[in-house]
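seq:
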Amino acid sequence: MTSSALIFNGYRLLLFLYNILIRIYQGLAGLAAPFNPKIKLFVTGRKQLLKRVAADFQQEVQPPVWFHCASLGEFEQGRPLMEALKVAYPDIKILLTFFSPSGYEVRKNYSGADYIYYLPFDTQKNAQQFIAITRPQMAIFVKYEFWYHYLNTLKQNDIPAIVVSAIFQERQAFFKWYGSLQRKMLKMLHYLFVQNGASIDLLKRIGIHNAAIAGDTRIDRALAIAQSEKEYPVLEDFKGSHKLIVAGSTWKEDETLLYDTLVQLNNPAVKLLIAPHEVHKDHITQIQERFRAFQPALWSEQPINPDSRVLIVDNIGHLAYLYRYADYTWIGGGFNKTGIHNSIEAAVYGKALAWGPVYNRYQEATDLIHDGAACSFPDAAAFANKIREWLQDAQGYEKAGQQARQYIERNKGATGKILNYLKQQNIS
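struct:
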């Protein structure tokens, strides 16, 4: 058997296994749905989905531009491009899909898209039906999530598919000996817009040259939010003349560190605002119990007790605006294996940044650390010591904030670069 035949047979085997895994995943989700509210949304949101899509598109004559986002973070990356497209082409129709309930349930009423759905599971039949019904003129995948049957069906129908704000790392399957199926998916893409030069080098290594550096579209979105100058008088009153730590997208480990930080600082001139990643009742109650000694207040229960030193944001949609009020910022997620959440939302305000030890998956995080705009802390003692240092050295703190802002200024403009490319693709 020739080497090319071996490669072909290996690819077919991987595709066979891929199809089985999709079915297993679908089955396990159905079994788990009654016991997990998030998985229940994931499953029920896909019931009779293609029938609903077909009904919605029955009278639609204009092929949409299809954006797919895995979840809420990817939506925020795709949003600047969706909105820029709407400005450039006011009559364009936008189809938006999500894989996760964390994205769909929060943004299912987003006014910038004309059609919003969960993405049907990636089977050959689903992909063919979905694309036949919606007839997209182009598909844009945000950052990652490459689904074989959707990409293959798009290619078979000569519908260009691109990825934006992508970032590639050597640990990914694309660059491993067992990654032939993943490499095949990348080669189905019409063009790739990536965040950095390292991604370009990795893609060239596997024979992919239709790629360019555009940067991260989240920066453009964060700048637009920062320029909105939305005000929160309740937070101004809570902060008063105190120094304020704004901690965003926190998890249990972050909240433990933040509690210990306040204890070790033992400084009533410092207050804390926490906007947790999960705002369900049980988690909010846990945070209240943890910070009981600091008389925690809830955002939803205004007016705020003036003696409270901790304010808990128990709803969503505010965080990107609240960083404006920070003296010190803590980005959550740095004790989870997936790493920190969105640090760009805070960096646009020119504030020094802090987070836990897990951040290397994110280009902006490593860049901000390198530039001196951010610090990573393994425990509360280290973070408390840094806050004491910043309290004593206003010039050093100011310099870190300036580095954050300069990073943003150097890296803005990804949306415009991608939009210029789209304008050349005869979008209508």
